[in-house]
Amino acid sequence: MSGPLAGYKVLDMSRILAGPWAGQLLADMGAEVIKIEKPVVGDDTRHWGPPYLKDTAGNSTEDAAYYFCANRGKKSVTVDITQTEGQAIIRQLAAQTDVLIENYKVGGLKKYNLDYESLSAINPRLVYCSITGFGQTGPYADRPGYDFLIQGMGGLMSITGEATDNNGNGGPVRTGVAVTDLFSGMYAANAIQGALLERHSSDLGQHIDIALLDVQAAVLANQATNYLIGGEVPGRIGNSHPNIVPYQAFATRDGHLILAVGNDAQFQRFCDVIGEPQLALDSRYVSNRMRVENRETLCRKISELLKTHNTRDWLQRFEDNHIPCGPINSIDQVFDHPQIVARKMQISIIDERAGEVAGVANPINYSRSMIDYAVPPPQLGSSTESILGEYLEYSALEISELRNKSII
Predict the structure, then answer these.
(1) Where are the domains of the chain?
(2) Dist. CA 203–CA 182, nearest whole Å
(3) Using an 8 Å Cβ cutoff, are 184 and 131 in contact?
(4) How many Cβ atoms sit within 10 Å of the Cβ of residue 292?
(5) What's the rounded Cα separation, in Å, for the pair 117 and 139?
(6) Which DSSP state fits 281?
(7) Model pLDDT, residue 61
(8) What CATH fold (topology level) applies to the domain 9-219+367-404?
């Protein structure tokens, strides 16, 4: 079978990560995604290198590896939307499109008559998704928003990193990938699919307003409810879990490992393995609630014991006794991991410049529908002429004139 979104057409006018991530997810599931890019320059992430994609001769191309993380399965069309002719192209495409994704500043497309109100008048069935830093309303609506900034403003950095000690060490840390952008893309893709389902009954599209700050507040998850219900403001506790003990990284004799002891039975087995069965009977540690209250003394004892053996030795003992644990892998080790290999999480896509290019699979696995990896991230403007000619019926002469004017 083809992908579950086969037959839907998406106009992706977004750049960087959140919007393109949503567009790529829809493309993976079979939607036809037309990516609108600025002539000559394209999406900013094409230039966010090194590293850059290398061709078969080993020479760097103009496209950074960053661009390849969020743009497979799309067709690239270059259009200068600041020009009247360029705006006409977008309106014509929107008239026959199911979804439009954009991440311009609030009101940024209105001056070109490419906002939701303008395009929905042309196509009432259009699902129009706007992704911004702070949303379409509120006192911060006009401000630009970036993932790093939102991680700080949205509370994530206040709970990420080691607690500051008496010597001033520690402090807030951003996550290793732009999780606010990625979550926003995921929420956008889910919202889009919900609107498409609703359209079956209403026969109408609608405007979706996704704000990075809203998303970051939402994905505070248990830390948010810890505060809203418990009344205490969570802080940074490094690799520890605020509600479960022992559930953190520990040093061993030659490295580190992660323990994720989630219930009392697991804790009893853990104490047996480390040679301290009496700890499970100690009134200070007999339940998770008590272990959380006495975290400092328990984790100090565990830290001392785990430093007596190597990481591999401990992992084997814990795994043999069904105690949740794991190593801290580098990214190369992740893609060499037998479970990742078995799940086929590394894919290859054929690029006409570079040949076989490695990428990361979509983690969705359907029993019948297919995830499509046939189309690599597009070269800038590679589908401009075909889309204008086949979809909009522009003549070769008209396309040539647009190109001479730098409209495309």
Answers:
(1) 9-219+367-404, 247-332
(2) 30
(3) yes
(4) 16
(5) 22
(6) G
(7) 96
(8) Rossmann fold (3.40.50)
Active-site annotation holds for 351: no
Contact (CB, 8 A) for 211 and 137: no
What element of type H or E holds 358?
Answer: strand 355-360
With beta carbons less than 8 A apart as the criterion, state whether 83 and 402 touch.
no
| pLDDT computed for residue 168 by the predictor | 77
Report pLDDT digits (tens) over 296-314. 999 999 999 999 999 999 9
SS3 170: coil
pLDDT in tens, 17-26: 999 999 999 9
Classify domain 247-332 at the CATH topology level: formyl-coa transferase, domain 3 (3.30.1540)
> Which regions of the chain are under pLDDT 70?
1
CB 191 within 8 A of CB 129: yes
Residues in Cβ contact with 349 at an 8 Å cutoff, skipping those fewer than 6 apart: 72, 356, 357, 359, 373, 374, 375, 376
51: nearest Cα among 34, 71, 35, 67: 67
Sequence-distant (≥ 6) Cβ neighbours of residue 340 within 8 angstroms: 334, 346
Distances (CA, A) of 182 to 151, 188, 189, 207: 12, 10, 11, 20
* Helix or strand run (H / E) with residue 127: strand 127-132
Of residues 312, 305, 192, the one with CA closest to residue 246: 305
Of residues 181, 214, 351, 372, which has the active-site annotation? 181
Residue 19 C-beta-side C-alpha neighbours within 13 Å: 32
Q: What share of the chain is helix, strand, coil (3-state, %, to 5)?
A: 40, 15, 45
pLDDT at position 170 is 86
Residues 6+ apart with CB under 8 A from 300: none
Tokens of 267: 């804790």
The model's pTM is 0.95
Phi, psi (5° rounding) for residue 19?
-65, -50
